[in-house]
Amino acid sequence: MAALIRDYIARERMSREQFAFKAKLGKSTVDKLLTGLFSDKTLAAVEGRTGLQLRRHDAPEGLAAPGRAAPAEAVPRHEVTFHRAPDGVCLAVASAGEGPVVVKTANWLNHLEQDWRGPVWGPLLRRLSSKLRVVRYDGRGNGLSDREVADISFAAFVRDLEAVVDGLGLERFALFGASQGAAIAIAYAAAHPERVSRIVLHGAYAQGRNRRGSEAERELARTFLTMIRQGWGDEHSAFVRAFASIFFPAATPEQLQAWVELQRLATSADTAVRLRAACDEIDVTGLLGAVRAPTLVLHNRHDSVAPLDQARRIAAGIAGAHFVELESDNHVVLEGEAAWPRFIAEIERFLAS
Length: 353
Known about the structure:
By secondary structure, this protein is of the alpha/beta class.
């Protein structure tokens, strides 16, 4: 249901406020709808005012309607709140589990609901939340956070993390950063060493493609942008499937399809291009020496998105960092891979130590 509403908002190119006005709902009610909190009365009202079909009136008793959250016994509970970045952008934040806090920084791309239930991030997130309090958020421009934003830049990404942890009142916590989220974690840890207890990085890069001093990398960056522009939002597009397979060449068909769907739901083509372009300009090499927290750097040997030498550069630049090379072709280790048990064991051992 929440996905149907988000798709409608994106398709009609309207803001949350405009949707709230059309559906004659308060903004707080819209926020609840987008996190799966709704009543049949509210759904009926939205259907009548927008033409959306949100309920299945013929669903047998006990079966969830399409789009509804999975039963609590099937998927552990997570709670979603909203916080404001300094420039007013509304950020969706999810928390699950109890214990020491680990904050997962935003990466390419996030959607709190899809990540939690899907096969790409879900197994890791649910495993960690069985022992820890896992906090994560949708970055600006995607997921349940504000989609239409003026500032998409690395500096804004870091300010978003600051806004999330400050909004939750977190004093000291571990950071988990994957892909571009690794650079965000590094920048935050360098600026706030007293608040970061440990750092786990996976699929990390210190420099975006335009900052690596290679024309081949710059050409690849331009190619990625072209692929996004040509097929974003169309699950049958060869461009979208090719782009997805670069991230997860060894994924099962189900995992790859889930990744395609996640990208489609997470953001628009225009915003995806802006986010990708901002990532290509990242350079945190000058901050590595300022990181004081114990750091674990995990990297897949045949990662085509973030070269192995980028991970080695990070591990060499952070004093005392522990580097682990994993046997995988994917950008992020997926459940079912041969590398999965070691991937999980290394993270759990490091965060528990």
